[in-house]
Amino acid sequence: MLILSIDEIPGKKAKKSKVRLQGGEDLCLYTKEVNRLGLEAGDDLSESAYEDILAMILIPRAKKRAMHLLEKQDRTKQNLSDKLRESGYPMCVVEAAVSYVESYHYIDDERYARNYIRYHQDGKSRRRIYEDLYKKGIAKDIIEIALEDEYLASEEDQIIALLEKKHYDASTADMKEKSRIYRFLLGRGFSYQTIDRILSKR
User: Fold this and answer.
1) 20 to 30 A from 49, CA-CA: which of 1, 39, 80, 131?
2) Over the stretch 3-31, which tens digit does the pLDDT of each residue have?
3) Are strands 2-9 and 27-30 parallel, antiparallel or unpaired?
């Protein structure tokens, strides 16, 4: 495959370059690696040389990067993939790194979903948690199973607790304050019907 250009990536402490290829995904390599491999714009990079770069340089590096990201916080499979893509790794390299950490259960979307539900259910509605987890790339069936098992909160009790936390007093609240608290509760994912039912009692 033809090397179209080799461009230095600005803003990096260690100098890196992007090797742009015709017929293959671009490669982000340290500039010293580019020099060591003798890569130059206009040259033809053989398929075997391309595969060697992936297997011997980028996949091991992506695995280490994935492990480093997971040391800081638990992540979903989608989030970890996105972070690796942001670092410039080709999709095949990302998939290899994610499969590696997944094989050791360092990432587990079901575990992530269950932990997220346990931690957030006191302050968020079932619907809001579902939406949050779905946006994080977790499959619908995993979310539904985790919610069924882990979501134990009463939404009415949640709303009452949030109103108390916000020091909301229906007897003194004006229309502006009522609208503000209504928007706040909607933002937490509670339904109009549930909010109306609780607020009408206070």
Assistant:
1) 80
2) 999 998 887 677 899 999 998 789 999 99
3) unpaired
